[in-house]
From TrEMBL:
InterPro entries: DUF2188. It comes from Rossellomorea pakistanensis. This is Uncharacterized protein YdaT.
Length: 121
């Protein structure tokens, strides 16, 4: 059974389009090699996320502290895209924004150090 861009496992549905398409491509290749479907999904998802092709051009969006709470700002940006009182509230909106823009979300701690990078938020 091969998957297509319109017919794929449910676990692929929340992946950004480029990552999902790469996962489908990898999964189909693994199925052709005789891998078990359950393993194929996990392997394809991980490999697609690690895939560096297309990552170079992705914009980075940073969740950082702001005088009014927390902000989402584009890398090298001068103005906040979003500002919220708490990091938790901002993260929900920031994930959606970064996914929509097919960008990378970089989450910082209160002290400014990087907490994590989300390639598909």
């Amino acid at each position: 059974m091969s998957w297509t861009k319109s017919d794929y496992p449910n676990s692929f549905k929340n992946l950004p389009t480029k990552v999902r398409n790469k996962a489908i491509e990898i999964a189909n290749a693994l199925l052709d090699e005789g891998y078990e479907e359950g393993r194929v999904i996990a392997i394809a998802t991980e490999q697609a996320r690690k895939n560096k092709e297309g990552q170079k051009d992705k914009k980075q969006y940073h969740v950082k502290t702001h005088e009014n709470g927390w902000q989402l700002i584009k890398e090298d940006g001068k103005q906040a895209i979003l500002v919220e009182d708490t990091k938790e509230i901002l993260l929900e909106e920031a994930k959606q924004y970064a996914n929509k823009k097919e960008g990378i979300l970089v989450v910082h701690r209160q002290d400014g150090s990087v907490e994590k990078r989300l390639y598909e938020a």
